[in-house]
Amino acid sequence: MVMDSSWPDRLVAGLRRFLGRVAYRLRQARSVLWPQVDPVLLAEARSRLPPRWRAPFDRLGGSEKAHVLRLYRAIAADPALSEADREALITLALTHDLGKAITRPTFLERVVKTLLPIPNRAHPILGARLLRRLGAPPALVRRVARHHRAPGNDRLLALFQRYDDSL
User: Fold this and answer.
1) How far is CA 49 from CA 17, 44, 88, 109, in A?
2) Which residue has the higher pLDDT, 158 or 31?
3) Which residues contact 125 (CB under 8 A, 6 or more apart)?
4) Which one, out of 7, 14, 93, 140, has a CA that is 20 to 30 A from the CA of 154?
5) In Å, how far are 27, 73, 115, 116, 160 from 23, measured between CA atoms?
6) Can you spell out the DSSP letters for 123-166?
7) Cα separation of 24 and 48, whole Å?
8) Which residue pairs from 49-58 have beta carbons closer than 8 angstroms and sit at least 24 positions apart in sequence?
């Protein structure tokens, strides 16, 4: 039996991916348990939303707001983005989890979903419906509805998912 000489490299790469996912999940768990919401940054981010969208945003829990603010900060600071992409990504970051203001996951549900790869199905659809009722552009509604699914040919959704998965 001849062994592939690259198997150690594949093993190391797989181990790195696994450890990266563990680190990501631990960061998520920390943010659920001890969310850090900067009130100044929150006010700045909130002011970028149309007035009718602010009430659902205000109903998000602390860990969701902390997550949204991490995305907001990362996208706003990325020098590689065009202004048009930055604006679209910031709006998506601020609205992608609005459905959680409707589903209201309990603390235990948030911890379990953080630690286990359980798909999020309800909040993207509910958030998209809410945004549609509030008059959001169809592209934003579609991206919010699909933010936990494969992006297909949507370049901005794929880019957003890279931010979302890294924070």
Assistant:
1) 36, 10, 12, 28
2) 158
3) 99, 145
4) 14
5) 6, 20, 11, 13, 20
6) HHHHHHHHHHHTT--HHHHHHHHHTTS--TT-HHHHHHHHHHHH
7) 28
8) 49/91, 49/94, 49/95, 50/134, 52/134, 52/135, 53/95, 53/98, 53/131, 53/134, 53/136, 56/98, 56/101, 56/102, 56/130, 56/134, 57/94, 57/95, 57/98, 57/101
pLDDT in tens, 4-60: 668 888 888 888 888 887 777 777 677 667 778 999 999 999 999 999 999 999 999
Q: What predicted TM-score, i.e. pTM, was given to this entire model?
A: 0.77
Residue 41, phi-psi category: left (phi > 0), alpha (psi -120 to 50), beta (remainder)? alpha
